[in-house]
Every structure is written in structure tokens, then in C-alpha cells.
């Protein structure tokens, strides 16, 4: 693996029957950066992440993550990274405290250090009151906080977060941003997925915009902003255009208008 490269993906393809979920994607993630996969629902973000983790087999393409091959070295990858799944798979009958202790024992970490760090994170995310409460009873946002903390307790070199902020309020998003910044300042990297341009803009150094399994734009936020300026559009507008969401919104709105008009005529 070349200097400072944490993830390398070349011409990656994954098909499910007749759906081309990932259709020839290539990108690199470098040491110390927060890299975002940005795209609408169904773009292929989760599939790309699962391929990188060795949870799915690709149809075609090459991948390397922390120098490992996901198809053969899934276990090594799991030990070295922190992963927050889109669908939380955490043990619902445990409390956050139990879960963090469990992680400490599985990952062979010092329990008292883990407990101290976990409590610090829980406090900074304003979730300490749930420390001894069963995870099943927590809100979606608080479950996400617990998942994010679980993923960083062992100080992984690479954090992979699949839409981790969907249930969080604006303040918690800021705290998570701080956590990610601290992580990258210490040389860590982050691969992050979101369907929200604003979140990508706020959190990522560089983004790959994907639509229908294909890469439709890549660059630093600044580069993409400059390109948008040249087109006389905002970054958000360019994102919506690149991912074909602008026309679909217009169509939906005009259909809604029409059906609303018909309803009024019926009254
Ligand atoms: N296990 C699966 N079987 C069949 N189709 C799937 C499966 N997983 C994902 N897909 C399809 O692949 C496409 C990409 O899905 P996904 O990677 O989950 O997108 P995203 O995470 O960007 O929302 C979608 O059309 C989705 O329906
Ligand atoms: Mg997804």
C-alpha cells in the first residue's frame, strides 16, 4: 500500500440479481482524513462499506484496507477498525456500561481506562443518565451515541461510520464532529456515509458523491464548492443535480399539487 493510504478501492462492483448496487467505484482514503460517501438512499453506500469489511463478496474489483484484503483478512480488519453499522446490532438487553465492559474484555483493553473514557464520552454527548439503563429502552439517537462510543474505545486507526448521525440532534452532531476531529488529529482516519450534503460539508475533508452505484463527483469540499461556483450553483444544488434528485423533487411536488387540486375540486 502506498504511503499514507488507508483504503484503496478500484473498479469495485457488486450486483444483487438485477440491481447494480455498486457499479465500478474507485477511491482512496488517506491517513488523517475524514472521507465521506455521499449519496441518496439506494446509492450503494452501505454495500460499499460492507464490501470493505468483508461482509459481502464483490463481483469485481480490488480493495485494500489498512493493508489487508477484505476477502481473505476480514478478522484482522475487524480488530483494527471501529465500525458503526447503519442498523445498530448492539446487545439490547445490556446497559451501555455492560456493553463497554464487554467490549473491553473482548478487545483485551484495560477495564478501568475504558470505563473512564466511556463515561467521558457519555457525558460529552449528554447521555450519562442512560449509562445504567437497558439499551433496548434508549431512543434511536442515544443508541447511536452508544454505538459510536463502542466503536472508538479501542482507539482504532480507522473508523467506519454508516449514517451514524441520522437520529442525533444538532448539538450531538457537533460533539461527534469534535470526536472525529480528535481522532484524525491523532493520525486516525474516518470513512463516513451520509445522504445529507450539509452533514458531509460539516464533517468531511473529502467526499465521493455516488448515485446508482456510480461515482459522479469526488474532491475536497473546497474543490467541489469552487466547481459549483463556476456553475453558478450552490454545493447543495450541484449535489441534487449530480444525484438526479432535483428533477425527481420537482416531479413529486407537481404531482402532489395536482392531486391536491383534484381533491379541492371534489369538495
Ligand atoms: N441484500 C440485498 N439484496 C438485494 N438488493 C440489495 C441488497 N442490499 C442492497 N440492495 C440494493 O442495492 C442498492 C444499494 O443499496 P445500499 O448499498 O443499501 O444503498 P445506500 O446505503 O446508499 O442507501 C439498493 O437498490 C438496494 O435495494
Ligand atoms: Mg445505507
List descriptors.
three-stranded antiparallel β-sheet; six-stranded mixed β-sheet; binds adenosine-5'-diphosphate; 267 residues; binds magnesium ion; Rossmann fold; alpha/beta; globular
How many strands?
9
Count of helical regions: 10
Shape descriptor: globular
Going by CATH, the architecture would be: 3-Layer(aba) Sandwich
- CATH topology, which one? Rossmann fold
Fraction of residues in H or I helices:
40-55%
Which CATH class applies here?
A: Alpha Beta
Structural class: alpha/beta
Description:
The protein has one domain: Rossmann fold (3-Layer(aba) Sandwich). 43% of the residues lie in helices and 24% in strands. The protein contains ten helices and nine strands. The chain is globular and about 65 Å long. The model has no long low-confidence stretch (mean pLDDT 90). The protein binds adenosine-5'-diphosphate and magnesium ion (MG). Magnesium ion (MG) is lined by residues 45-46, 86, 162-163.
In short:
The protein has 267 residues and is α/β, with parallel strands linked by helices. The protein has 10 helices and 9 strands.
Give the helix/strand layout:
Blueprint: E1 5-16, E2 19-30, E3 34-38, H1 45-52, E4 60-65, H2 74-80, E5 81-84, H3 96-106, H4 111-124, H5 140-152, E6 158-162, H6 170-185, E7 189-194, H7 197-203, E8 206-211, E9 214-220, H8 221-230, H9 235-242, H10 245-266
Helix pairs in contact: 3-4
The structure holds adenosine-5'-diphosphate and magnesium ion (MG).
Magnesium ion binds next to α1.
Amino acid at each position: 500500500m502506498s504511503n499514507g493510504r488507508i483504503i484503496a478501492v478500484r473498479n469495485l462492483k457488486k450486483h444483487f440479481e438485477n440491481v447494480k448496487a455498486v457499479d465500478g467505484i474507485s477511491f482512496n482514503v488517506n491517513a488523517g482524513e475524514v472521507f465521506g460517501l455521499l449519496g441518496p438512499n439506494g446509492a450503494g453506500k452501505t454495500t460499499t462499506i460492507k464490501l470493505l469489511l468483508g461482509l459481502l463478496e464483490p463481483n469485481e474489483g480490488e480493495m485494500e484496507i489498512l493493508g489487508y484484503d477484505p476477502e481473505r483478512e476480514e478478522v484482522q480488519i475487524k480488530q483494527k477498525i471501529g465500525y458503526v453499522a447503519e442498523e445498530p446490532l448492539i446487545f439490547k438487553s445490556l446497559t451501555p456500561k455492560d456493553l463497554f465492559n464487554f467490549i473491553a474484555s473482548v478487545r483485551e483493553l484495560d477495564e478501568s481506562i475504558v470505563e473512564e473514557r466511556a463515561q467521558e464520552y457519555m457525558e460529552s454527548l449528554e447521555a450519562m443518565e442512560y449509562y445504567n439503563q437497558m439499551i433496548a429502552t434508549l431512543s434511536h439517537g442515544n443508541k447511536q451515541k452508544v454505538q459510536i462510543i463502542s466503536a472508538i474505545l479501542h482507539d482504532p486507526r480507522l473508523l467506519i461510520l454508516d449514517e451514524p448521525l441520522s437520529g442525533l440532534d444538532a448539538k450531538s452532531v457537533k460533539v461527534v464532529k469534535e470526536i472525529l476531529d480528535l481522532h484524525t488529529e491523532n493520525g486516525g482516519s474516518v470513512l463516513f456515509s451520509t445522504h445529507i450534503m450539509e452533514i458531509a460539508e460539516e464533517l468531511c475533508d473529502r467526499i465521493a458523491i455516488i448515485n446508482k452505484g456510480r461515482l459522479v463527483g469526488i474532491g475536497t469540499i473546497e474543490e467541489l464548492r469552487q466547481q459549483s461556483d463556476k456553475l453558478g450553483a450552490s454545493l447543495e444544488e450541484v449535489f441534487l443535480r449530480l444525484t438526479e434528485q432535483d428533477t425527481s423533487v420537482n416531479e413529486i411536488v407537481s404531482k402532489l399539487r395536482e392531486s391536491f387540486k383534484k381533491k379541492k375540486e371534489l369538495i
